[in-house]
Design brief:
- The chain has 2 domains: about 5-270 and about 475-490, Aldehyde Dehydrogenase, Chain A, domain 1 (3-Layer(aba) Sandwich); about 275-450, Aldehyde Dehydrogenase, Chain A, domain 2.
- It has helices spanning about 5-10, 55-70, 75-95, 95-105, 110-115, 120-130, 170-185, 200-210, 225-235, 250-255, 285-295, 315-330, 350-365, 400, 415-425, 440-450, 480-485; strands spanning about 20, 25, 35, 45-50, 140-145, 150-160, 160-165, 190-195, 220, 240-245, 265-270, 275, 310-315, 365-370, 390, 410-415, 430-435, 455, 475, 490-495.
- Helix content is about 35%, strand content about 20%.
- The strands form 5 sheets. Strands 14-15-16-13-12-17-18 form a 7-stranded mixed beta sheet, sandwiched between helices. Strands 9-8-7-10-11-19 form a 6-stranded mixed beta sheet, with helices on both faces. The chain has a 3-stranded antiparallel beta sheet with strand order 5-6-20, with no helix packed on it.
- It is globular, with a radius of gyration of 24 Å.
- The protein is an alpha/beta fold and about 500 residues long.
- α2 packs parallel to α9, α3 packs antiparallel against α6 and α11 packs across α12 (about 315-330).
- The longest helix has 17 residues, at about 55-70.
- It binds nicotinamide-adenine-dinucleotide.
- Nicotinamide-adenine-dinucleotide binds near residues 227 and 271.
- This is Betaine-aldehyde dehydrogenase.
- Keywords: Oxidoreductase.
- Belongs to the aldehyde dehydrogenase family.
Length: about 500
């Protein structure tokens, strides 16, 4: 039977996507639209407006006016805290609807978005609650006088201004929250650009924010592809900060393109995160299932922090590969609304071609254990790729170095701890790493030596209060925790004599 998601489209009641400028939803000024096609079926799902440079101008101007008015940027902490908590509750109330919209946008199955914390609506709501907690604690310092004379030396944290928030398509709930919650918590105003491959989910999340009572103009939305919409945003004179999550190439381009006005820039980019499996791992089968699970379940390896490089001690190498192969065989594909479906297709044909190209490269570089092909039959109209494992991979092979963003695991053998750490760090990326060992001293010793932003020891989780971000070319800055909300502020120092002596 041919796969179709059309009945779900009807039941979710998907509307045409519009821009939000100054509190008003409307079509783009140029009349251009983008037709979104479902990655599992190729069916047309819906249309949304493509913003013009003039629309981006209007959105930035609206955010600037809202910021300068102080309606949000200068609002009392209590007002902001209550709104962020109210919104978190609204997200929880609408969780099912949002998960369905996501399944229509990017085909991430309900089985995954409902059960895996980091990609759940619950996690996004928790991020809003977490940042609400920082709003009345964003304080400065009062410092003792450095030189003679009686005076006060103080620091204040003030909102940075207008933020351009640019999202990728793969984890809309968490990534929307990790940008919007701290930016609003700090008092900034926002122009948001969702990915053209996951727009409808984000538009609904924005609608709920207006229902929560956010003043008009505080958050504006421009939709459409990176070029021209994102491009107009990152080069806009009146944007103070860019907060971007996406690929390394676009991240580097943003740094260059925004240099003219020296915008503040936060970047959450890609990775080639290693899982280090030592011979004393508490359960090699579980380590293998966790590793290949992160590369195949739910997102088909289209996750920034998926450990797509397994570094495995030679003593447990064969056991690891056999267990990973067993797990790979259990992954199911199809209708994302079917509770029995565990994973998704690649997001578009460009990405499908790219991943299949890497797989062909892998066949020349290493030993193919399983997968290595596009899925056909009932799934032929979608961008499905079989879970793929390559063994005996050299760490300098292309498939061990480049972010493939697909269901491809490269397994590299090692002989001792020093070699494992050296291989793990031998990459241009540094987003995450996992260590599997029952020896607590080894696990901590190795964790300290790994050049990566987040380390999992016998398990991996992204939590709202734990800073998340990359070393090296995986990014600039962190999301989550106090440092995340501080990144939406400028630090101001004030000097004030207490006598006439210093004036
Ligand atoms: P992408 O870089 O293609 O697109 C990301 C966003 O940037 C989209 O909204 C896109 O329209 C926009 N964009 C593209 N070109 C632009 C330009 N010239 N100017 C401004 N905006 C532009 O990435 P993607 O395919 O959506 O997402 C996958 C990438 O995101 C992977 O590399 C993945 O590792 C990374 N990612 C990182 C994290 C993290 O937290 N570190 C999380 C999720 C995804």
């Amino acid at each position: 039977m041919t796969l179709t998601v059309q009945p779900h489209r009807e039941s979710v009641g998907l509307k045409t996507g519009q821009l939000l400028v100054d509190g008003q939803w409307g079509p783009g000024s140029g009349g251009g639209t983008w037709t979104h096609r479902h990655p599992a079926t190729g069916e047309e799902i819906g249309e949304f407006a493509v913003a013009t440079a003039a629309d981006v101008d209007a959105a930035v101007e609206s955010a600037r006016r809202a910021f300068d008015s102080g309606a949000w940027s200068n609002s009392r902490a209590g007002v902001r805290i209550k709104l962020l908590h109210r919104y978190a509750d609204l997200l929880r109330e609408h969780a099912e609807e949002l998960r369905s919209l996501q399944a229509l946008d990017n085909s991430v199955p309900l089985s995954f978005s409902g059960n895996i914390y980091a990609t759940s609506v619950e996690a996004a709501a928790d991020v809003f609650d977490h940042h609400a907690g920082w709003v009345d604690k964003l304080g400065g310092q009062t410092l003792p006088p450095y030189q003679g004379g009686d005076h006060l030396a103080m620091t204040f944290r003030e909102p940075i201004g207008v933020v351009a928030a640019i999202l990728p398509w793969n984890a809309p709930f968490l990534l929307f929250a990790q940008k919007v919650a701290p930016a609003l918590g700090a008092g900034c105003t926002i122009v948001l650009k969702p990915s053209e491959y996951c727009t409808f989910t984000v538009l609904r999340m924005v609608e709920l924010l207006t229902e929560a009572g956010l003043p008009p103009g505080t958050l504006n939305v421009v939709t459409g592809p990176g070029d021209p919409v994102g491009e107009a945003l990152i080069t806009h004179r009146d944007v103070d900060k860019i907060s971007f999550t996406g690929s390394r190439g676009v991240g580097k381009h943003i740094v260059e393109a925004s240099a003219g006005t020296l915008k503040r820039v936060s970047l959450e980019l890609g990775g080639k995160s290693p899982a280090l499996v030592f011979a004393d791992a508490p359960n090699v089968g579980l380590a293998a299932a966790t590793t290949i699970g992160a590369v195949t379940m739910g997102l088909s390896g289209q996750a920034c922090v998926a450990n797509t490089r397994a570094l495995v001690h030679r003593e447990v190498y064969d056991e690891f590969i056999a267990a990973a192969q067993g797990m790979a065989a259990a992954i199911t594909y199809g209708d994302p609304f079917d509770p029995g479906v565990l994973s998704c297709p690649l997001i578009n044909e460009r990405q499908l071609d790219r991943v299949l190209g890497y797989i062909e490269q892998g066949k020349r570089e290493a030993r193919l254990v399983t997968g290595g092909e596009r899925l056909g039959g009932d799934l032929a109209a979608g961008n499905f790729v079989a879970p793929t494992i390559f063994a005996d991979v050299a760490n300098d092979a292309t498939i061990a170095q480049e972010e493939i963003f697909g269901p491809v695991l490269a397994v590299v053998p090692f002989s001792d701890e020093d070699e494992a750490v050296r291989l793990a760090n031998d990459t241009e990326y540094g987003l995450g790493a996992s260590v599997f060992s029952a020896d607590a001293q080894r696990a901590f010793r190795v964790s300290r030596k790994l050049k990566a932003g987040t380390i999992g020891v016998n398990g991996f989780q992204i939590e709202p209060h734990l800073p998340f971000g990359g070393f090296k070319q995986s990014g600039l800055g962190r999301e989550g925790g106090l440092s995340a909300i501080e990144a939406y502020t400028e630090l101001k120092s004030v000097f004030m004599p207490l006598t006439d002596e210093l004036m």
